[in-house]
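Q: what sequence does this backbone want?
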């Protein structure tokens, strides 16, 4: 193990503050509606031109280990601010620098560091209380667009964000993707969507779009891997008699089971589509339960000893429409009980409050939005 270099007192404070000042100097130029851009060299490809505080901070690394230590401390400030608020990372960095600079100055003048810390904590509480009193909730779409325009440094993007927020509501989630065109626009996914494609292209009902479109389908949700056709035939016969199509969501569908579904679809006996269950491990089980609740069905669970051959029609979910393409499965207007959906959303909210993992929180928020609000996808376009 490499030997550790140790420094103390004034020398340590000076080194740490130097690292903080280096990082803050790079970040502060982006502050406010007239903030400037920063170019970041990349190992491969063109440099990034950004004006986002946390993105710039994340790229900062310094040769001196003590200066780098100071930079890493403030980098965490920016990162945490981004996780909690999604903006204000430059402001947080500048405030952290000012607190350290003035705090170190007072320690050097003889102030007790712990007393200084307690004073800062009291000051923070007072400031937060005053800011809370001064703040107000955005009440109009125009105000939302104004705030978004300042954050994005672009009135057009601000308008798109405001439109998307108005459509999906407070419970909705907004994600960002690269657009295939030079225009920026948004799309709202109505209902529940998850990133699973059809297992076989033979399920396609709209060859022009290469999509599966199912009207008023039954929806079978299971965590089992289906291989044997014989265990499926009793249920398939019941569904075929109704004349309704089938969406099958399973851990996997292979072998004779898949061949039977494809053959019946090609013959016109039963229009169906099979997709793999979303997620992995415990998250997969939770998402399957979400699908079952929003469609009014139950999960045919292997752990519970349930089998496909014993499944009845009233155990299946229903929806007004299902669309499956080569990327996603979208369930539109599921027939689940509104009270059950509401209870599920409340359960997820409690899980969000109880988790310390940013990743878990993000995934739980996505699940909540799919159940309660919807998801808007902003597709950002540009010439370069």
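A:
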């Amino acid at each position: 193990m490499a030997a550790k270099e140790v420094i103390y007192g004034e020398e340590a404070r000076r080194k740490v503050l130097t690292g903080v000042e280096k990082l803050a100097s790079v970040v502060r130029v982006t502050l406010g509606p007239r903030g400037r851009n920063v170019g970041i060299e990349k190992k491969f490809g063109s440099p990034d031109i950004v004006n986002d505080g946390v993105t710039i901070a994340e790229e900062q690394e310094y040769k001196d280990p003590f200066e780098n230590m100071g930079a890493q401390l403030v980098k965490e400030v920016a990162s945490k601010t981004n996780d909690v608020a999604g903006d204000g990372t430059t402001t947080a960095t500048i405030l952290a620098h000012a607190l350290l600079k003035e705090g170190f100055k007072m320690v050097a003048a003889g102030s007790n560091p712990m007393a200084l810390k307690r004073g800062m904590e009291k000051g923070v509480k007072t400031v937060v209380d005053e800011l809370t009193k001064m703040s107000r909730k955005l009440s109009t779409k125009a105000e939302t667009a104004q705030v978004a325009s300042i954050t994005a440094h672009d009135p057009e993007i601000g308008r798109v964000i405001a439109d998307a927020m108005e459509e999906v509501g407070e419970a909705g989630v907004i994600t960002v993707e690269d657009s295939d065109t030079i225009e920026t626009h948004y799309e709202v996914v109505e209902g529940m969507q998850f990133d699973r494609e059809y297992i076989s292209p033979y399920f396609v009902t709209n060859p022009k779009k290469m999509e599966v479109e199912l009207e008023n389908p039954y929806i079978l949700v299971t965590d089992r891997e289906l291989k044997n056709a014989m265990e499926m035939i009793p249920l398939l016969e019941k569904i075929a008699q109704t004349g309704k199509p089938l969406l099958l969501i399973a851990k996997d569908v292979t072998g004779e089971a898949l061949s039977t579904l494809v053959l019946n679809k090609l013959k016109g006996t039963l229009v169906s589509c099979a997709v793999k269950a979303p997620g992995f491990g415990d998250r997969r089980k939770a998402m399957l339960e979400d699908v079952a609740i929003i469609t009014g069905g139950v999960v045919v669970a292997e752990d519970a000893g349930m089998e496909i051959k014993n499944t009845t029609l009233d155990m299946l979910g229903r929806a007004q429409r299902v669309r499956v393409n080569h990327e996603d499965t979208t369930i539109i207007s599921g027939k689940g009980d509104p009270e059950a959906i509401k209870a599920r959303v409340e359960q997820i909210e409690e899980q969000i409050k109880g988790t310390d993992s940013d990743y878990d929180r993000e995934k739980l928020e996505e699940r909540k939005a799919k159940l309660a609000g919807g998801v808007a996808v902003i597709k950002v376009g540009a010439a370069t």
